């Protein structure tokens, strides 16, 4: 049993690259804690610093209330599983799982019983005498997890243990791993770049970008109440609409979100009004999840300032629903670039998105249909402006003009720096 505290931890590699910046995190005893973020954000570096495999440049690491910066890895009672859990190829599953107990000189009869019990919990009992080379990837990962857990570490660290497996197996194993580590009560830090894995497994999770902690909380908190535009966009599937707006506080009318050719209107009694007033005349980012947009009959009554409209230009079938992409002429924001601490990568010399290359080739018309290209506004403009869901019965057709009511209580508002305009409760 152990808790982990990172107090202002930084990692600068000898190359000069800062991989982790001023990391402040508390991982509680017995928690299944997930570190989530895109490739290169510093997740593995943090895990390796906790394990003692990577030196901490500055800041303090506390393990169970004691400073652990200089503690040798073997003195931390930590077990780690990697993407490809390395097993001894000439030892059976049983032999691999027995190994840590042999090294620590455990009683052989007790060790054997323990291995059999854990192998059963991992669904490996029927293959306990097989060599790793005869196992599937998922079975090998289970055996690696078994070997790591057998000596009951105080802290269990897992670095993308499922990323080499196919989608079906990942889903199956993530449920099993979560159940197993919870039943063992071992504090676990689990690294992944997969949002679904993080949200389905975590007791609490941290979202990282460029070595910086963007948000931390339970999956429900971080999803429903994200601290930054980056977190909101990273966790949204289907993608969140991220619009560039100018905010105007207008007496008698409320708070206007000027989206270029369209606008939304928050009443003065909106709970966010007090925080929003300080953004009067400034750019804000409006995050709208597709499920907060509901198609309505054109011309049907709706409160002014609660409707967005557009022309459907593409539809995607997702089995249980359709996703529609409507051109609305509203400037959008690339949330992954908003509020970055590290300088963004230099711009690509050539358009890299297929749609941009096609558009360049076709002289500005990527999709057929001959519709005039929408007017460009300030801000980063994408053609697929407005993404919304349509049930199997209510799907629009390509080219239809659609009106969508916006659930204003559920829109997320961020300042130009990407941080939420209202403080996020945690
Ligand atoms: N030994 C090293 N020397 C210099 N830079 C390094 C070293 N190891 C990692 N980095 C850099 O530090 C940053 C963080 O790397 P890290 O492996 O922690 O990221 P990650 O979030 O785990 O990525 P991934 O999901 O791709 O594994 C990256 O930019 C990486 O290139």
TrEMBL record:
Boundaries of every ABC transporter domain copy: 4-235
Domain of life of the organism encoding this protein: Bacteria
UniProt GO cellular component terms: ATP-binding cassette (ABC) transporter complex, substrate-binding subunit-containing
Statement: the UniProt record of this protein carries the keyword Nucleotide-binding: yes
InterPro entries: AAA+_ATPase, ABC_transporter-like_ATP-bd, ABC_transporter-like_CS, ABC_transpr_MalK/UgpC-like, Mo/tungstate-bd_C_term_dom, OB_MalK-like, P-loop_NTPase
UniProt entry keywords in alphabetical sequence: ATP-binding, Nucleotide-binding, Transport
Pfam families: ABC_tran (PF00005), OB_MalK (PF17912)
SUPFAM superfamilies named among the record's database cross-references: MOP-like, P-loop containing nucleoside triphosphate hydrolases
GO molecular function: ABC-type transporter activity; ATP binding; ATP hydrolysis activity
Protein name: ATP-binding cassette domain-containing protein
Native organism: Actinomadura litoris
